[in-house]
## 1
Amino acid sequence: MRELDQSVIREFERIVGANHALQEPDLTASYTTDWTGRFEGQSPVVLRPADTAQVAELVKVAAAAEISIVPQGGNTGLVGGSVPLNQEIIISTLRLNQCEPIDVLAQQVTVGAGVTLAALQSHASQRELDMGVDLAARDSCTVGGMIATNAGGINVVRYGAMRDQILGVEAVLSDGSIISHLEGLEKDNTGYSLPGLLAGSEGTLGIITKARLRLHPRLEERCSAMIAFNNVDDAVAATAQLRRTLPSLHAVEVIFAEAMHLVSQHIGSSIPVGHDAHAWVIVEVAASIDPTEELAKAIDGLGSLPVEVAVGMDTGTRANLWQYREKITEAISTQGTPHKLDVTIGASRLAEFVNRVPQVISEVDRSATALMFGHLGDGNVHVNILGPAGAEPDEGVDEAVLLYVAKLGGSISAEHGIGSAKREFLHLNRSSSELAAFRAIKKALDPNGILNPNVLLPPESP
Ligand code: FAD
Ligand code: 2HG
Ligand code: ZN
């Protein structure tokens, strides 16, 4: 373990208090291993500042001592970007958890970066408003982490991803200076968009401490359906039609066969419809007046594409259908440590991709299993690959799948980010000129490379 100079530790303790400068391995363990258990690091100290001023002071001390920092929120990231794989110190935002009063007139709110998504949703609901991004890690993931990864989730078809929800940010840069622009003006063309730049920056450009977020009217009237299909092409065709015909469309998710069988076993409940189907689409509509009729008509319009349909009209039956989608990540974790690939494919190549991927994987590792599911409305497929008896698959499977994605003109990271897991593949999607522009931005904002130095950008060749 890297030893830090005791005088630096004392400086950190002076800023945050000794109780919030964790050094004992049993206290730091939950901060140094990622959610999947695949990425495990070590850190000489985990710092838990109480406010932006403390974050700024900590960064100044770290910068003077040339110590690298991993910013961390809820540690639910899935690409090995939130843990200290190279003995960095951790600055945890979990105490930056204040929600300011909702600005009802503007439909906006300013919150601390450490506020969890569930806490934000509950805060917004008190004024009949809602957050535009929702995802299954809601009880732990934080606003700062969601901005830093530009998180997507289940409602991108309606509201866009996290970048679309941000009107302003406050952040600490690598020299300890603070940038803050939280007025929340809908129109504000005064130069570069720093919130836009920090969204998806994965802790490499600044530590986000607060955000001004757009909220949406809370749509209480909801209806969900699970639709089973005989093949992937039918599921893709139906999804395109539902997007065209359903103005109240709120989510269109997909579960492919292996993932469906596993999650059904995990929940201990049989597949609700189409036991022998190959793809299940979960559709949710939400509006201020009951959208059930609209959904029924749209499903009728799909003609003979569906094999079978189950509808959930009240909270209980809707939750029952949704658990088959929301519990997949947890179900996979009970089987072992997967390699998680999170890709987007254009609609016209999507079915071809899903049908061919198992073959692409088995050409590299015959004993590996692929489990697929995702956000079909966005063309976003999550490919989870497990080796035999829960072991990790052959390293080469990642490259084989991502090369195939690039060949089909897709993205190697739809919503989870690049982290440390995919940085060696970034060149598959980004040209050398784009990578040079990325490096120039990094150099300008973090000239000494102390902010999450081992994620996103590939190492420079010597
Ligand atoms: P962390 O994991 O702590 O950090 C993630 C990255 O952001 C790291 O690079 C870290 O350095 C950086 N970071 C964190 N906080 C800050 C900050 N304040 N300033 C600067 N950088 C920071 N993602 C999706 O997009 N869609 C999904 O549907 C989805 N579902 C999930 C379901 C489960 C069960 C799990 C475990 C994860 C899921 N994720 C999903 C992945 C994950 O990206 C999101 O949960 C979330 O965006 C991460 O937030 P976090 O606070 O946990 O960030
Ligand atoms: C989801 O959509 C998350 O459920 C997690 O993005 C995906 O576990 C995964 O691969
Ligand atoms: Zn997802």
## 2
Amino acid sequence: MRILITAGPTREPIDPVRYISNRSSGKMGYALAAAARDAGHDVLLVSGPVALAPPEGVELLPVTSAAEMFAAVEGEIGRCGAAIFAAAVADYTPAHPARQKIKKVPGSGAGMTLELVPTRDILGSARGTFGFAGLLVGFAAETEDVREHALGKLRRKGCDFLVANDVSRRDIGFDGDQNEVVVYAADGPETPVPKGPKSEVARAVLRTIGLG
Ligand code: CTP
């Protein structure tokens, strides 16, 4: 099956040299891409800026901002039978990115306020805007009330599965090499995946969602 996977953070430009981003390393998404390839799937990896080499045999579509990731997914998802949204997409972006580097006003001591506007929810657009009828899998990175938030996102975004991780824990999740997740299925079952290297967690997630 052709599978689209989003991975990594997005960068939202403030000016030509500055941006807003987050701590996502892309490791979980890249591990999923490698595991899906190993399971015999044809993988398209839509990735924000990361310090990782793309897994061999995986098609890479690099993007930078949330808007670029939205456009890339919109253009490709129709050719895929499954889509896994592991990217940590910025929820807000600067309203008016400056064309030139923003200069401070010397000696004024004044602060500055950056106006942000919401980005479009890519996963949340899959069922409606993109008309995607394939297997839809979201991720949720939470610091509290993980189960409640995960189940809310699963329903709100029309997912078949939602993979939740607790990013308040320092030993797993963002940036690390290990993860521990719970996979929530729209039809009820909740499958805990024990702590392990992201490559192993990726394989277990794929099995749980019927792609491994
Ligand atoms: N997501 C997306 N596009 C966005 C924001 C999120 O595709 N603009 C996807 C992520 O890739 C992930 C899921 O939605 O699969 C959940 O992302 P998250 O940021 O945790 O959820 P939000 O709906 O943004 O909720 P909140 O930030 O309030 O927790």
